[in-house]
Design brief:
The protein is an all-alpha fold. Helices cover 62% and strands 1% of the residues. Strands 1-2 form a two-stranded antiparallel sheet. The relative contact order is 0.08.
Protein backbone atom coordinates (compact mmCIF):
# COMPACT_ATOMS: atom_id res chain seq x y z
CA UNK A 1 0.00 0.00 0.00
CA UNK A 2 1.04 3.53 -0.58
CA UNK A 3 1.67 5.56 2.58
CA UNK A 4 -0.84 8.23 3.35
CA UNK A 5 0.57 11.55 4.43
CA UNK A 6 -1.89 13.54 6.53
CA UNK A 7 -1.08 17.18 7.17
CA UNK A 8 -3.18 18.49 10.02
CA UNK A 9 -5.05 21.73 9.52
CA UNK A 10 -4.26 24.35 12.12
CA UNK A 11 -1.00 22.63 13.17
CA UNK A 12 1.35 23.98 10.57
CA UNK A 13 3.88 24.83 13.30
CA UNK A 14 4.94 21.18 13.47
CA UNK A 15 8.21 20.50 11.81
CA UNK A 16 7.13 17.27 10.36
CA UNK A 17 3.77 15.87 9.29
CA UNK A 18 2.33 12.83 10.95
CA UNK A 19 2.38 9.96 8.54
CA UNK A 20 -0.04 7.07 9.03
CA UNK A 21 -0.33 4.03 6.87
CA UNK A 22 -3.81 2.99 5.76
CA UNK A 23 -3.64 -0.12 7.91
CA UNK A 24 -2.65 1.83 10.98
CA UNK A 25 -5.30 4.46 10.39
CA UNK A 26 -8.01 1.88 9.91
CA UNK A 27 -7.08 -0.10 12.99
CA UNK A 28 -6.21 2.91 15.14
CA UNK A 29 -2.66 1.60 15.86
CA UNK A 30 0.09 4.19 16.18
CA UNK A 31 3.79 4.29 15.71
CA UNK A 32 5.97 3.76 18.78
CA UNK A 33 7.75 7.01 18.14
CA UNK A 34 4.46 8.87 18.34
CA UNK A 35 3.82 7.58 21.85
CA UNK A 36 7.06 9.17 23.12
CA UNK A 37 6.55 12.42 21.26
CA UNK A 38 6.06 15.80 22.77
CA UNK A 39 2.74 17.15 24.01
CA UNK A 40 2.25 19.19 20.88
CA UNK A 41 2.72 16.12 18.79
CA UNK A 42 0.26 14.31 21.03
CA UNK A 43 -2.37 16.95 20.40
CA UNK A 44 -1.69 16.67 16.72
CA UNK A 45 -2.20 12.94 16.96
CA UNK A 46 -5.52 13.38 18.73
CA UNK A 47 -6.66 15.69 16.00
CA UNK A 48 -5.66 13.16 13.39
CA UNK A 49 -7.50 10.48 15.31
CA UNK A 50 -10.66 12.55 15.23
CA UNK A 51 -10.73 12.46 11.44
CA UNK A 52 -9.43 8.92 11.03
CA UNK A 53 -11.94 6.26 9.90
CA UNK A 54 -13.43 3.86 12.40
CA UNK A 55 -11.94 0.39 12.33
CA UNK A 56 -14.06 -2.31 10.87
CA UNK A 57 -12.18 -5.15 12.40
CA UNK A 58 -8.91 -6.25 14.02
CA UNK A 59 -7.50 -5.16 17.37
CA UNK A 60 -8.41 -1.75 18.72
CA UNK A 61 -6.10 0.37 20.79
CA UNK A 62 -9.13 1.80 22.72
CA UNK A 63 -11.61 -0.51 24.40
CA UNK A 64 -14.23 2.31 24.48
CA UNK A 65 -15.28 1.65 28.05
CA UNK A 66 -17.21 4.35 29.81
CA UNK A 67 -16.79 6.81 31.36
CA UNK A 68 -13.04 6.38 30.62
CA UNK A 69 -11.23 3.86 28.53
CA UNK A 70 -8.62 1.60 30.15
CA UNK A 71 -5.83 3.04 28.07
CA UNK A 72 -6.48 6.54 29.39
CA UNK A 73 -6.72 5.17 32.91
CA UNK A 74 -3.34 3.43 32.60
CA UNK A 75 -1.75 6.59 31.28
CA UNK A 76 -3.51 8.63 33.96
CA UNK A 77 -4.86 11.13 31.51
CA UNK A 78 -8.34 12.53 31.02
CA UNK A 79 -10.29 10.49 28.51
CA UNK A 80 -11.51 12.82 25.76
CA UNK A 81 -14.60 10.68 25.12
CA UNK A 82 -15.72 9.06 21.92
CA UNK A 83 -16.56 10.43 18.55
CA UNK A 84 -20.27 10.64 17.69
CA UNK A 85 -20.84 9.32 14.24
CA UNK A 86 -23.13 11.33 12.00
CA UNK A 87 -26.21 9.56 10.73
CA UNK A 88 -26.94 10.15 7.06
CA UNK A 89 -30.49 11.03 6.04
CA UNK A 90 -31.39 11.17 2.38
CA UNK A 91 -33.72 14.04 1.46
CA UNK A 92 -34.80 14.99 -2.02
CA UNK A 93 -34.85 18.60 -3.09
CA UNK A 94 -38.67 19.03 -3.03
CA UNK A 95 -38.83 17.63 0.48
CA UNK A 96 -36.18 20.07 1.65
CA UNK A 97 -37.97 22.95 -0.04
CA UNK A 98 -41.27 21.85 1.46
CA UNK A 99 -39.82 21.60 4.94
CA UNK A 100 -38.21 25.01 4.53
CA UNK A 101 -41.51 26.52 3.42
CA UNK A 102 -43.29 24.83 6.28
CA UNK A 103 -40.87 26.17 8.85
CA UNK A 104 -41.20 29.64 7.41
CA UNK A 105 -44.98 29.46 7.32
CA UNK A 106 -45.04 28.44 10.98
CA UNK A 107 -43.34 31.67 11.96
CA UNK A 108 -45.46 33.91 9.76
CA UNK A 109 -49.16 34.45 10.25
CA UNK A 110 -51.13 33.10 7.27
CA UNK A 111 -52.69 35.80 5.14
CA UNK A 112 -56.16 35.57 3.62
CA UNK A 113 -55.88 34.37 0.01
CA UNK A 114 -57.10 36.64 -2.74
CA UNK A 115 -60.11 35.51 -4.81
CA UNK A 116 -57.91 34.78 -7.81
CA UNK A 117 -55.47 32.85 -5.68
CA UNK A 118 -58.31 30.94 -4.05
CA UNK A 119 -59.79 29.89 -7.39
CA UNK A 120 -56.32 28.92 -8.59
CA UNK A 121 -55.84 26.72 -5.53
CA UNK A 122 -59.28 25.20 -6.03
CA UNK A 123 -58.42 24.44 -9.64
CA UNK A 124 -55.21 22.73 -8.55
CA UNK A 125 -57.10 20.66 -6.00
CA UNK A 126 -59.71 19.62 -8.57
CA UNK A 127 -57.06 18.85 -11.16
CA UNK A 128 -55.12 16.64 -8.77
CA UNK A 129 -56.25 13.02 -9.13
CA UNK A 130 -57.79 11.49 -6.05
CA UNK A 131 -56.42 8.40 -4.40
CA UNK A 132 -59.32 6.37 -5.81
CA UNK A 133 -58.53 7.51 -9.35
CA UNK A 134 -54.85 6.72 -8.88
CA UNK A 135 -55.16 3.38 -7.10
CA UNK A 136 -58.45 1.97 -8.44
CA UNK A 137 -59.71 3.89 -11.49
CA UNK A 138 -62.11 1.08 -12.43
CA UNK A 139 -63.69 1.27 -8.99
CA UNK A 140 -64.13 5.02 -9.36
CA UNK A 141 -65.85 4.60 -12.73
CA UNK A 142 -68.14 1.93 -11.27
CA UNK A 143 -69.11 4.15 -8.35
CA UNK A 144 -69.87 7.07 -10.68
CA UNK A 145 -71.94 4.83 -12.93
CA UNK A 146 -73.95 3.60 -9.94
CA UNK A 147 -74.64 7.14 -8.77
CA UNK A 148 -75.77 8.19 -12.24
CA UNK A 149 -78.20 5.28 -12.38
CA UNK A 150 -79.69 6.36 -9.07
CA UNK A 151 -80.10 9.93 -10.30
CA UNK A 152 -81.85 8.59 -13.41
CA UNK A 153 -84.76 7.52 -11.22
CA UNK A 154 -85.16 11.17 -10.19
CA UNK A 155 -85.24 12.14 -13.86
CA UNK A 156 -88.03 9.64 -14.54
CA UNK A 157 -90.05 10.78 -11.51
CA UNK A 158 -89.68 14.44 -12.54
CA UNK A 159 -90.34 14.18 -16.28
CA UNK A 160 -92.81 11.25 -16.43
CA UNK A 161 -94.18 10.82 -12.90
CA UNK A 162 -97.71 9.73 -13.78
CA UNK A 163 -96.85 7.81 -16.94
CA UNK A 164 -94.32 5.80 -14.94
CA UNK A 165 -96.92 5.14 -12.24
CA UNK A 166 -99.49 4.08 -14.84
CA UNK A 167 -97.29 1.38 -16.39
CA UNK A 168 -94.61 0.47 -13.82
CA UNK A 169 -96.70 -2.40 -12.43
CA UNK A 170 -98.04 -3.47 -15.83
CA UNK A 171 -94.79 -3.99 -17.76
CA UNK A 172 -92.14 -6.63 -17.24
CA UNK A 173 -89.23 -4.20 -17.00
CA UNK A 174 -89.37 -0.49 -16.21
CA UNK A 175 -86.94 2.11 -17.48
CA UNK A 176 -85.35 2.43 -14.04
CA UNK A 177 -84.76 -1.32 -13.77
CA UNK A 178 -83.50 -1.44 -17.35
CA UNK A 179 -80.85 1.21 -16.72
CA UNK A 180 -79.82 -0.35 -13.42
CA UNK A 181 -79.66 -4.03 -14.28
CA UNK A 182 -80.13 -4.82 -17.98
CA UNK A 183 -77.05 -5.72 -20.00
CA UNK A 184 -78.29 -3.71 -23.01
CA UNK A 185 -78.01 -0.54 -20.93
CA UNK A 186 -74.22 -0.99 -20.85
CA UNK A 187 -73.89 -0.15 -24.54
CA UNK A 188 -72.16 3.10 -25.39
CA UNK A 189 -75.20 4.66 -27.06
CA UNK A 190 -77.54 3.96 -24.14
CA UNK A 191 -74.93 4.94 -21.58
CA UNK A 192 -74.23 8.34 -23.12
CA UNK A 193 -77.91 8.91 -23.88
CA UNK A 194 -78.84 8.38 -20.23
CA UNK A 195 -75.90 10.50 -19.08
CA UNK A 196 -76.88 13.47 -21.21
CA UNK A 197 -80.42 13.33 -19.79
CA UNK A 198 -79.13 13.13 -16.22
CA UNK A 199 -76.65 15.97 -16.73
CA UNK A 200 -79.32 18.14 -18.33
CA UNK A 201 -81.65 17.45 -15.42
CA UNK A 202 -79.02 18.41 -12.83
CA UNK A 203 -78.05 21.51 -14.82
CA UNK A 204 -81.69 22.63 -14.98
CA UNK A 205 -82.20 21.91 -11.32
CA UNK A 206 -79.12 23.83 -10.13
CA UNK A 207 -79.07 26.54 -12.84
CA UNK A 208 -75.64 25.43 -14.01
CA UNK A 209 -74.88 26.61 -17.55
CA UNK A 210 -71.57 24.73 -17.69
CA UNK A 211 -73.31 21.44 -16.93
CA UNK A 212 -75.89 22.25 -19.60
CA UNK A 213 -73.10 22.60 -22.15
CA UNK A 214 -71.59 19.34 -20.89
CA UNK A 215 -74.92 17.57 -21.46
CA UNK A 216 -74.93 18.79 -25.06
CA UNK A 217 -71.44 17.40 -25.60
CA UNK A 218 -72.66 14.07 -24.18
CA UNK A 219 -75.64 14.26 -26.54
CA UNK A 220 -73.31 14.60 -29.53
CA UNK A 221 -71.26 11.66 -28.31
CA UNK A 222 -74.41 9.58 -27.88
CA UNK A 223 -75.46 10.49 -31.43
CA UNK A 224 -72.20 9.13 -32.82
CA UNK A 225 -72.60 5.91 -30.86
CA UNK A 226 -76.20 5.56 -32.03
CA UNK A 227 -75.11 6.05 -35.64
CA UNK A 228 -72.65 3.17 -35.24
CA UNK A 229 -75.41 0.95 -33.85
CA UNK A 230 -77.72 1.81 -36.74
CA UNK A 231 -75.04 0.83 -39.26
CA UNK A 232 -74.59 -2.57 -37.59
CA UNK A 233 -77.17 -5.11 -38.87
CA UNK A 234 -76.74 -7.16 -35.70
CA UNK A 235 -77.67 -4.25 -33.42
CA UNK A 236 -80.08 -2.14 -35.41
CA UNK A 237 -83.14 -4.07 -34.12
CA UNK A 238 -81.89 -4.48 -30.56
CA UNK A 239 -83.56 -3.03 -27.48
CA UNK A 240 -80.44 -1.01 -26.74
CA UNK A 241 -80.56 0.82 -30.07
CA UNK A 242 -84.23 1.75 -29.71
CA UNK A 243 -83.72 2.73 -26.05
CA UNK A 244 -80.85 5.04 -27.00
CA UNK A 245 -82.95 6.61 -29.76
CA UNK A 246 -85.85 7.24 -27.36
CA UNK A 247 -83.52 8.75 -24.75
CA UNK A 248 -82.07 11.13 -27.33
CA UNK A 249 -85.54 11.90 -28.65
CA UNK A 250 -86.69 12.93 -25.18
CA UNK A 251 -83.56 15.03 -24.78
CA UNK A 252 -84.31 16.77 -28.07
CA UNK A 253 -87.79 17.60 -26.83
CA UNK A 254 -86.38 19.02 -23.58
CA UNK A 255 -83.41 20.90 -25.07
CA UNK A 256 -83.95 21.03 -28.80
CA UNK A 257 -82.43 23.53 -31.19
CA UNK A 258 -85.91 24.40 -32.45
CA UNK A 259 -89.58 23.92 -31.65
CA UNK A 260 -89.91 20.99 -34.06
CA UNK A 261 -86.37 19.61 -33.98
CA UNK A 262 -87.63 16.59 -32.05
CA UNK A 263 -89.51 15.46 -35.16
CA UNK A 264 -86.26 14.31 -36.76
CA UNK A 265 -85.66 11.91 -33.89
CA UNK A 266 -89.29 10.91 -33.75
CA UNK A 267 -89.32 9.87 -37.39
CA UNK A 268 -86.22 7.77 -36.82
CA UNK A 269 -87.77 6.17 -33.74
CA UNK A 270 -90.93 5.38 -35.70
CA UNK A 271 -88.81 3.77 -38.41
CA UNK A 272 -87.15 1.57 -35.77
CA UNK A 273 -90.56 0.54 -34.41
CA UNK A 274 -91.70 -0.46 -37.89
CA UNK A 275 -88.44 -2.28 -38.57
CA UNK A 276 -88.75 -4.29 -35.37
CA UNK A 277 -92.40 -5.11 -36.00
CA UNK A 278 -95.36 -5.40 -33.61
CA UNK A 279 -94.34 -8.78 -32.16
CA UNK A 280 -91.20 -7.27 -30.62
CA UNK A 281 -93.39 -5.06 -28.43
CA UNK A 282 -95.83 -7.55 -26.96
CA UNK A 283 -93.83 -8.07 -23.78
CA UNK A 284 -90.48 -7.39 -22.18
CA UNK A 285 -88.73 -4.08 -22.48
CA UNK A 286 -90.09 -3.69 -26.00
CA UNK A 287 -93.56 -3.30 -24.48
CA UNK A 288 -92.18 -0.68 -22.08
CA UNK A 289 -90.70 1.37 -24.91
CA UNK A 290 -93.94 1.11 -26.88
CA UNK A 291 -96.09 2.42 -24.02
CA UNK A 292 -93.56 5.17 -23.33
CA UNK A 293 -93.29 6.66 -26.80
CA UNK A 294 -96.52 5.83 -28.60
CA UNK A 295 -98.19 9.12 -27.61
CA UNK A 296 -95.25 11.02 -29.13
CA UNK A 297 -95.77 9.12 -32.37
CA UNK A 298 -99.39 10.27 -32.41
CA UNK A 299 -98.28 13.84 -31.65
CA UNK A 300 -95.80 13.62 -34.52
CA UNK A 301 -98.59 12.50 -36.84
CA UNK A 302 -100.77 15.45 -35.78
CA UNK A 303 -97.88 17.89 -36.25
CA UNK A 304 -96.88 16.56 -39.66
CA UNK A 305 -100.52 16.04 -40.69
CA UNK A 306 -100.10 12.45 -41.74
CA UNK A 307 -101.60 9.14 -40.56
CA UNK A 308 -99.94 7.34 -37.67
CA UNK A 309 -98.59 3.90 -38.56
CA UNK A 310 -99.88 2.56 -35.23
CA UNK A 311 -103.42 2.67 -36.64
CA UNK A 312 -102.70 -0.38 -38.82
CA UNK A 313 -104.53 -3.53 -37.81
CA UNK A 314 -101.42 -5.50 -36.85
CA UNK A 315 -100.31 -2.88 -34.30
CA UNK A 316 -103.80 -2.52 -32.86
CA UNK A 317 -104.13 -6.30 -32.56
CA UNK A 318 -100.81 -6.48 -30.75
CA UNK A 319 -101.92 -3.87 -28.23
CA UNK A 320 -105.24 -5.62 -27.57
CA UNK A 321 -103.52 -8.96 -27.03
CA UNK A 322 -101.01 -7.38 -24.65
CA UNK A 323 -103.90 -5.85 -22.69
CA UNK A 324 -105.57 -9.27 -22.41
CA UNK A 325 -102.29 -10.77 -21.18
CA UNK A 326 -102.14 -8.12 -18.47
CA UNK A 327 -105.63 -9.05 -17.36
CA UNK A 328 -104.70 -12.73 -17.16
CA UNK A 329 -101.61 -11.94 -15.10
CA UNK A 330 -103.58 -9.82 -12.64
CA UNK A 331 -101.90 -6.57 -13.71
CA UNK A 332 -104.98 -4.94 -15.16
CA UNK A 333 -107.22 -2.23 -13.77
CA UNK A 334 -110.41 -0.49 -14.83
CA UNK A 335 -108.53 2.75 -15.40
CA UNK A 336 -105.95 0.98 -17.55
CA UNK A 337 -108.63 -0.76 -19.58
CA UNK A 338 -110.51 2.47 -20.32
CA UNK A 339 -107.41 4.45 -21.27
CA UNK A 340 -106.13 1.68 -23.55
CA UNK A 341 -109.44 1.44 -25.38
CA UNK A 342 -109.53 5.22 -25.68
CA UNK A 343 -106.05 5.24 -27.16
CA UNK A 344 -107.21 2.75 -29.79
CA UNK A 345 -109.63 5.40 -31.06
CA UNK A 346 -107.39 8.44 -30.57
CA UNK A 347 -104.59 7.06 -32.74
CA UNK A 348 -107.09 6.98 -35.64
CA UNK A 349 -107.61 10.74 -35.43
CA UNK A 350 -104.52 11.85 -37.43
CA UNK A 351 -105.65 9.62 -40.28
CA UNK A 352 -109.18 11.02 -40.10
CA UNK A 353 -107.75 14.52 -40.22
CA UNK A 354 -105.67 13.83 -43.33
CA UNK A 355 -108.46 12.00 -45.16
CA UNK A 356 -110.95 14.78 -44.42
CA UNK A 357 -108.54 17.43 -45.65
CA UNK A 358 -107.86 15.57 -48.88
CA UNK A 359 -111.54 14.84 -49.43
CA UNK A 360 -112.57 18.48 -49.01
CA UNK A 361 -109.70 19.77 -51.14
CA UNK A 362 -110.48 17.34 -53.97
CA UNK A 363 -113.56 16.01 -55.66
CA UNK A 364 -114.17 12.79 -53.75
CA UNK A 365 -117.05 10.50 -54.51
CA UNK A 366 -120.14 10.46 -52.39
CA UNK A 367 -119.56 6.88 -51.28
CA UNK A 368 -116.07 7.61 -49.96
CA UNK A 369 -117.39 10.64 -48.09
CA UNK A 370 -120.15 8.61 -46.48
CA UNK A 371 -117.70 5.87 -45.54
CA UNK A 372 -115.35 8.34 -43.84
CA UNK A 373 -118.24 10.00 -42.04
CA UNK A 374 -119.40 6.62 -40.69
CA UNK A 375 -115.92 5.75 -39.43
CA UNK A 376 -115.54 9.08 -37.66
CA UNK A 377 -118.98 8.74 -36.05
CA UNK A 378 -118.13 5.25 -34.82
CA UNK A 379 -114.89 6.39 -33.22
CA UNK A 380 -116.61 9.43 -31.73
CA UNK A 381 -119.36 7.36 -30.17
CA UNK A 382 -116.94 4.82 -28.71
CA UNK A 383 -114.71 7.55 -27.35
CA UNK A 384 -117.63 9.44 -25.86
CA UNK A 385 -118.85 6.30 -24.12
CA UNK A 386 -115.41 5.67 -22.64
CA UNK A 387 -115.22 9.27 -21.52
CA UNK A 388 -118.55 9.08 -19.70
CA UNK A 389 -117.59 5.80 -18.10
CA UNK A 390 -114.26 7.14 -16.82
CA UNK A 391 -115.83 10.37 -15.57
CA UNK A 392 -118.47 8.40 -13.66
CA UNK A 393 -115.87 6.14 -12.05
CA UNK A 394 -113.72 9.13 -11.14
CA UNK A 395 -116.64 10.90 -9.52
CA UNK A 396 -117.57 7.72 -7.67
CA UNK A 397 -114.05 7.39 -6.35
CA UNK A 398 -113.97 10.98 -5.17
CA UNK A 399 -117.21 10.40 -3.26
CA UNK A 400 -116.06 7.10 -1.80
CA UNK A 401 -115.71 7.11 1.97
CA UNK A 402 -112.14 6.81 3.25
CA UNK A 403 -113.08 3.83 5.43
CA UNK A 404 -113.73 1.71 2.35
CA UNK A 405 -110.76 -0.46 1.48
CA UNK A 406 -111.24 -0.55 -2.28
CA UNK A 407 -112.27 2.23 -4.68
CA UNK A 408 -113.72 1.75 -8.18
CA UNK A 409 -110.46 2.60 -9.99
CA UNK A 410 -108.11 0.67 -7.72
CA UNK A 411 -105.79 -1.80 -9.39
CA UNK A 412 -102.15 -1.97 -10.34
CA UNK A 413 -101.86 1.84 -10.45
CA UNK A 414 -100.84 3.48 -7.14
CA UNK A 415 -103.78 5.22 -5.50
CA UNK A 416 -102.09 8.63 -5.22
CA UNK A 417 -101.70 8.83 -9.01
CA UNK A 418 -105.16 7.63 -10.05
CA UNK A 419 -106.88 11.03 -10.00
CA UNK A 420 -104.18 12.80 -12.03
CA UNK A 421 -103.97 10.01 -14.62
CA UNK A 422 -107.75 9.89 -15.03
CA UNK A 423 -108.07 13.67 -15.25
CA UNK A 424 -105.38 14.02 -17.93
CA UNK A 425 -106.81 11.10 -19.89
CA UNK A 426 -110.23 12.75 -19.85
CA UNK A 427 -108.69 15.94 -21.17
CA UNK A 428 -107.09 14.00 -24.02
CA UNK A 429 -110.47 12.48 -24.85
CA UNK A 430 -112.01 15.95 -24.84
CA UNK A 431 -109.49 17.15 -27.42
CA UNK A 432 -110.03 14.11 -29.63
CA UNK A 433 -113.83 14.42 -29.43
CA UNK A 434 -113.66 18.12 -30.33
CA UNK A 435 -111.56 17.28 -33.38
CA UNK A 436 -113.89 14.50 -34.51
CA UNK A 437 -116.96 16.72 -34.12
CA UNK A 438 -115.34 19.40 -36.23
CA UNK A 439 -114.37 16.90 -38.92
CA UNK A 440 -117.99 15.76 -39.14
CA UNK A 441 -119.14 19.36 -39.50
CA UNK A 442 -116.63 19.96 -42.27
CA UNK A 443 -117.70 16.84 -44.13
CA UNK A 444 -121.35 17.83 -43.87
CA UNK A 445 -120.57 21.35 -45.05
CA UNK A 446 -118.56 19.95 -47.93
CA UNK A 447 -121.53 17.86 -49.00
CA UNK A 448 -123.83 20.86 -48.93
CA UNK A 449 -121.28 22.94 -50.79
CA UNK A 450 -120.94 20.35 -53.54
CA UNK A 451 -124.71 20.17 -53.98
CA UNK A 452 -125.45 23.88 -53.90
CA UNK A 453 -122.45 25.22 -55.78
CA UNK A 454 -122.48 26.25 -59.42
CA UNK A 455 -119.76 27.09 -61.88
CA UNK A 456 -120.26 30.89 -61.70
CA UNK A 457 -120.21 31.12 -57.89
CA UNK A 458 -118.03 28.37 -56.45
CA UNK A 459 -118.18 28.05 -52.71
CA UNK A 460 -115.06 28.73 -50.70
CA UNK A 461 -113.50 25.68 -49.14
CA UNK A 462 -114.29 25.68 -45.41
CA UNK A 463 -111.04 23.84 -44.75
CA UNK A 464 -109.14 27.13 -44.89
CA UNK A 465 -111.29 28.43 -42.03
CA UNK A 466 -110.66 25.47 -39.71
CA UNK A 467 -109.92 26.61 -36.21
CA UNK A 468 -109.50 24.31 -33.30
CA UNK A 469 -108.48 25.04 -29.76
CA UNK A 470 -107.82 22.08 -27.44
CA UNK A 471 -109.35 21.89 -24.01
CA UNK A 472 -107.95 24.60 -21.71
CA UNK A 473 -105.28 23.64 -19.25
CA UNK A 474 -106.61 23.18 -15.75
CA UNK A 475 -104.87 23.26 -12.43
CA UNK A 476 -103.33 19.84 -11.97
CA UNK A 477 -101.54 18.68 -8.88
CA UNK A 478 -98.03 17.47 -9.51
CA UNK A 479 -96.54 14.77 -7.37
CA UNK A 480 -93.53 15.65 -5.24
CA UNK A 481 -91.95 12.27 -5.75
CA UNK A 482 -88.28 12.44 -6.67
CA UNK A 483 -87.87 16.23 -6.74
CA UNK A 484 -88.64 19.20 -4.61
CA UNK A 485 -88.29 22.37 -6.69
CA UNK A 486 -90.98 24.20 -8.62
CA UNK A 487 -88.81 24.54 -11.71
CA UNK A 488 -88.36 20.81 -12.01
CA UNK A 489 -92.11 20.29 -11.53
CA UNK A 490 -92.75 22.22 -14.74
CA UNK A 491 -90.98 19.46 -16.65
CA UNK A 492 -94.06 17.26 -16.37
CA UNK A 493 -95.55 18.81 -19.51
CA UNK A 494 -94.11 15.79 -21.33
CA UNK A 495 -96.07 13.66 -18.89
CA UNK A 496 -99.21 15.62 -19.79
CA UNK A 497 -98.57 15.07 -23.50
CA UNK A 498 -98.11 11.33 -22.96
CA UNK A 499 -101.27 10.94 -20.87
CA UNK A 500 -103.30 13.04 -23.32
CA UNK A 501 -102.46 10.35 -25.91
CA UNK A 502 -100.73 12.94 -28.09
CA UNK A 503 -103.74 15.23 -28.54
CA UNK A 504 -102.01 18.18 -26.86
CA UNK A 505 -100.06 18.55 -30.09
CA UNK A 506 -103.23 19.91 -31.69
CA UNK A 507 -103.15 23.70 -32.02
CA UNK A 508 -104.88 26.43 -33.94
Amino acid sequence: MFPVSLKLRGLVHLNKPITLSPSSVSSYSVYASLLTSSSEEWLAYRAALAVAPVSSGGSKWCDQTRPECLRCQKRKITCPGYQKRFQFYHKTAPAVVKSTRTSKSDDARPSKPTPNGYHHQQALVLARPTIDQSVAPNLTATALDTQLKEVFSDVVYAVFPNLYAAFSARVDLTWVDFVRHHSAAQSSAVNWGIRCLITWFLARRHHDHDQLQASRHMYNRALRSLAQSLRDPARVKSDGTLAAAIALGVYEVLDGVGSNSWLVHSRGIGALFRLRGPDAHRSGFGRTMYTTYRAFLVAEAFTCQEPCFLESEEWRTMNREALLAEERDGKGSRLGEITENAFEEVLLCPGYLVRTRDMIAGNASESSRESLTAEIRCSRDLLRGLQRRLAALLELQMNTQPVQKRSPLDGSIPKQFVHTIAHRSLRGMDSALALLDQLLVLLAASKVRMIGSDENNPAQSPWNRVTYQPAPEGTISVTDEGTGTNEVKSLDWLDQLALSMGTLALKT
